[in-house]
Amino acid sequence: MVDIEDVRKVFDDPKASKAIATIDEDGWPHVAPVGSLRMVDENTFAFAVVAMKKTKENLLRDGKASLLAFTSLPQIGGYKVKATFVKFENSGELFDAFSRVLRELGFEVKEIGILNVENIEEIRL
Ligand SMILES: Cc1cc2nc3c(=O)[nH]c(=O)nc-3n(C[C@H](O)[C@H](O)[C@H](O)COP(=O)(O)O)c2cc1C
């Protein structure tokens, strides 16, 4: 059983590296950095679509994703999250919240992707 507030802390940490892996049309893993990825609640993650194309296609076609967030020295650790695609949204409270934050960094959010958590595993070294 993971500490869900610690999961949130790692995904919120600006020093954390974050990635989403999906499955392409040939069955190969497709991995992409995704700085906007956040835990919404213990069952839900969300990310902003700014530049991604292939990841979006893969989620719409296949629906499976693995998420990763980790920090390196001096605080080594992180989490792997198995998730399934729920939907893309281009309006609503969550979309507005992502848009506000990313606009300040100079990025335009096209839509947000919502993922449902299947399983969360802690990474230790
Ligand atoms: C550190 C970092 C963070 C990124 N965060 C995001 C993000 O939150 N949303 C997004 O759409 N693209 C983001 N990108 C860009 C995508 O990872 C990049 O376009 C990648 O090639 C995925 O695109 P694809 O799904 O079409 O392969 C980020 C790139 C880097 C280097």
Element string (H = helix, E = strand): HEEEEHEEHE
| Name given to the CATH homologous superfamily | Electron Transport, Fmn-binding Protein, Chain A
Give the domain tally.
Answer: 1
Low-confidence runs: none
Structural class: alpha+beta
CATH architecture assignment name: Roll
**Count of discrete alpha- or pi-helical segments spanning 4 or more residues:** 3
The small-molecule ligands in this entry are: flavin mononucleotide
Categorize the overall geometry: globular
Mean pLDDT: 97
Helix content: 10-25%
Distance between the termini: 18 Å
Spatially, the strands of the biggest sheet line up as 2-1-5-6-7-4-3
Q: How much of the residues is beta strand, in percent?
A: 35-45%
Classify the oligomer. single chain
CATH class: Mainly Beta
CATH-assigned fold name: Pnp Oxidase, Chain A
What is the CA-based Rg, rounded? Answer: 14 Å
